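To whoever picks this up:

The parser on our side crashed when reading a file containing two proteins. I've narrowed it down to the boundary between the first structure block and the second sequence. Both blocks are reproduced below exactly, byte for byte. First block:
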Amino acid sequence: MKKYILAILLAGSGSLFSCKEAFLDRPSQNGPTLDTYYTTAAQVNAATGLLYNTIWYEWQDKAYHAIGEVLSGNMYTGDPKYNTFLNFTVQSTDEQVSRSWYAFYKVAGNATVLIQTFEQKKGQVSDPSFLNQGIAEARFMRAMAYFYLARVFGDVPIVTDPVALAASGDYQVPRYVQKDVLRFVLEDLQYAEQNLPDAPYQAGRVTKYSAKGLMSKVYLYQGDYTNAKAKAGEVIASNKFSLADYGTMFTSSKANNNTESLIALQWMAAGGYAVGNPIQAYCGPSPLLKPTTGAGWSAVIPSIDLLNAYESGDKRRKWSVMEHGFTRNDWTNVNFPSGFKYDTTWTSSNDDALKIKTPTRSNALKYIVGPGSNGENVNGTSTDICTYLLRYADLLLIYAEATIGTGTSTSDAAAVEAFNKVHTRAGLSPVTSITKDQVLKERRVELAFEGDYWFDIQRQGFEKAKQILAKQERGTYTGSGIASMKTTITSASQLYLPIPQAETVSNPKLLEPAVPFYK
């Protein structure tokens, strides 16, 4: 390990700006050494703050929706940046494949450098508790990155010393079997659970309950229902979380880090590209955003199949989707001086420019804060709204599903209560028993456009995934009906993305069979 603090040499992480979100500030770059820096909690916190923001950007920008939503059938696209995910023609040269790989390893690598640096520093201070907390925070974020890697790519390399690897010039690292990658993730989370505080020391920071929650999700993905239920149960029993206002938390940065949020990426519109949240630029409608921000490309929009998944009376449809008749009086611009109106009554492309012309007559509403007329910070394509990676509603549904376990249904009171908390918030009537299919459907509509549904399909296994996908309507509306599009997968390998070609060229070991990480 070099003496100069490698944690501030975060490759490609870019500069951040001073603002109210102090923990996103970048530490000084005036050449501090390990002997003189990381002597206070504030210095450690400034370094770990970077793990919540820009180093995730290459994934968050477009791959977030391409993988979690387009691949899963929740969103339709005609945009070439996403289109291969619609029809399962993703190649190793695909831009979103390489951007995801790059982002996840950048997060993992930066976190690992911080872990190593803080471990070295512990011998130089009298009370290393603030360093242990920093290590726990970095190990948590490394776990999150490897959890994504394992779900997106399957068998992947684990790099425990990126500095030594870079210094060696030998990048011939093997892929490790997915189950070992997930074990590595759980070991990081177990450390985080033991060393993170009960409550966030700054808004948006992860806690031991964030670690418990993510462990629950990892266990669910593995099919370990006993541990998934136990960890979700610990979060529920803590009484530290509650369901928030669904519509507000996805349309206003003022609701960031609310009572429902366990893990969220933090963004700053003022920082611009790679520092602000860009989602509304790709998902929002042009008449609302283009005159003010130059954005609103409707590149990914709700699929017909997802729209059909909402049952009658489910308020999440109007909280998650813009359709004809949707209005926001506080979203004003030159096109809508009296408030925004979503109007799809067009008959040709020459109709009024204020009409909405998307192929499914809808736009996603989640993460759309508007043109900035209502006090939201909007800077070109960037906003302040956080990206939720784990919500309390998710934990409630994990608890319900894990209680069912390998069965098909349950009337267990605690599981039904957990399910009903989510279900009734949406304005639906409570139920007295639940099936696994019910829970999976609930997860789909509850977490729509949050980059998650693909992993719910994937973890069902190839045959079940094939059946789910084959039934989906991935087409578009026409003047007289639907231009139907059906697709499915033919190989279990399609449950994962290919490793980027640039990586396999430089490291041919990635083309070899995966090996165990643990001996």
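<<boundary where parser fails>>
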Amino acid sequence: MWLRRIPWILGGLFLFGLAGIAVAFAAVQIPGSNELADAQTTIIYFDDGKTEMARMAELNRESVALSQVPEHVKKAVIAAEDRDFYTNSGVSPSGIARSIWQALKGADVQGGGSTITQQYVKNYFLTQDRTVDRKLREMIIAIKIDRDLSKDQILEGYLNTIYFGRGAYGIQTASKAYFNKDVSQLTVAEGAVLASVINAPSLFDPALGAKQKTNLTNRVTYVLDGMVSQGWLNAADRAAAVMPETQAKAPSRTLSGPTGYLAVAVRKELTARLKLSNEDIDRGGLRITTTVSKKAQDAAVAAVDKNMPKTKAENVYAGLVAIRPGDGAVVAMYGGADYQARQFSAATDATIPAGSTFKPFALIAALQQGISTHTTFDGSSPMKDASLGITRLENYANQSFGTIDLRKATASSINTAYIRLNAKITPTATRDAAVAAGLPADTLGLGTEITNVLGTSSPHVIDVANAYASIAAEGRRAAPYLVKRVTSPAIDVDYTMAPQVVEAFSKDVAADTIDAMETVTSTGGTASRASGLGRPSAGKTGTSEDRKSVWFAGFTPQLSTAVAMFKDVNGVEEPLTNIGGAAEVASNGPPLSMWLDFMKAALDGEKPVDFPKRVGIGDDKAPTRAPITAPPPSDQAPTQDPVPTQDPVPTRPPAPSTQPTRPTAPVPTTAPPTSKPTSTVTPSATVAPVANRPVTPPGQPTAAPVP
């Protein structure tokens, strides 16, 4: 009996399904066009989630009549996306089945399951959300559109709405974006390129890399061969259609001024951390809340603008990054004055010799070995030690200090004392402490030579800001981040950042390191003017060899900020001399002024917080010394710090010319010397030369290597 009922049951289900389809077909109406520009433009906000920072991609469209599009371009698009376009009813069951079968086989899906009509419906009437409901509505509307409009009307609408990457919507804008010509002038090969890019611009735009270029070559072959198989292109024209050159991708005009660098950094984080494609970002209607404070960002821009030298300052750049200790949130970032003019961030792209900003990592390593900051070392100058491979090493201005403890060596940035400390604890321990604090292990020049303590490696500004944030957070290292929250009304994205924090070193080590670094910003230190902040602060000045860049990096318990300046002339580092009326730019000059002005404004309204008290690691093994003292303050505060003593690093041997070059950035500093200090280090077998550090941005001419 049950067997006899099965056909009736199946028949009933079939009729029920047909009835459901009929009801759905009648219920789904063709909607008005969607608000493509507003619904799919990605917007970046400051940390309040309301104040707009930037729009990731501008909507760029110029509609044209179908008659303006060459026949071979139309046929290339059809060959790429829907070869049955002129015969199907708006949907293609065979196309859907083919797409599923290719996916199951793991084959490269050249032809998608959606028809041109379906794609047009999705882009013009619906949204990009990936739901079954939207897909069903898309198919029903496609059938109705195919019934109500001619194929040419559908194709014209499609060609004017489809996205080609590079912010270009529509075939006319794409023609200009890729080939800088009107669509009517496109060749067969150029038309095939644009038809190929439609499938997934982030996978086929050759400007995005070698992989995309290879992908494009393969897909253009698929398109042209398809045109031949359909009788739309003869063999001779197919043979003549060679891969054309596309023009370089122009920077989006929405990414201008200092904000452009922030927007680009946000994009990089979205692709790296959330694995979003460029198409997802450009078209996905993302709503991105960043960690960046509007007040702090405005303060960063104002501080750099105010204190950058105004005369004879061509090719001088500055980078600034502020990070919240213990969290990793980037509160402010200055990568340059105008992203349109220079697509190379002084904050995140440029790599910069650390100079004496590296010395605190040796302090951390020493304290981890139980060495007190009251431990004394010889601070005499010059220093000669054949066992260390050093023929001559000088302090700034060749000033000798005699026997001094590590707090004094830090306050006055004494090279000879720190070299002797590095020999005692080993350069490997110093390097490891730097990595533990937050410098990437692959930082340019981060080696184990005896002079690494003097800052022969070249981190980014953001790296130093983050490493110092680990000290300020009492040994807790956090991964820096810009993106706090991401949602989308168009695609399936709902992301909230969870800070990634680990213990890098102990609270006791951090407390004694902070205490030593407070001497730098106190009376008698190389950055005593930082005391004008009016709250507890600690930091370090730094200057690179030949004063080609200068730094000041410092922190309070609430905020860690690094600032660096450098000069780059066509990819070649040049000394910061005769700039802005000063013989030499000093670390306690413009960089410290930028830091101080920024910190005052960024922390305005926040209650001052004290650092932890010095613990005194290893004091029982070291003679107790009186704290650093200085002459009583005068009635009038100085306008410039006392001349710092030690930041210049010893001359390093030139790197082999066969080594690859990498982009460089700002560098550490100290006060202007009256005469150029000299120091010579003879490398031993364990001292590796540091690679060249050109600051040439990608795409600019490469200059001769810097010695």
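After patching the parser it read the second block fine. The chain has two domains: 59-240, 297-621. The two ends are 94 Å apart (CA to CA).
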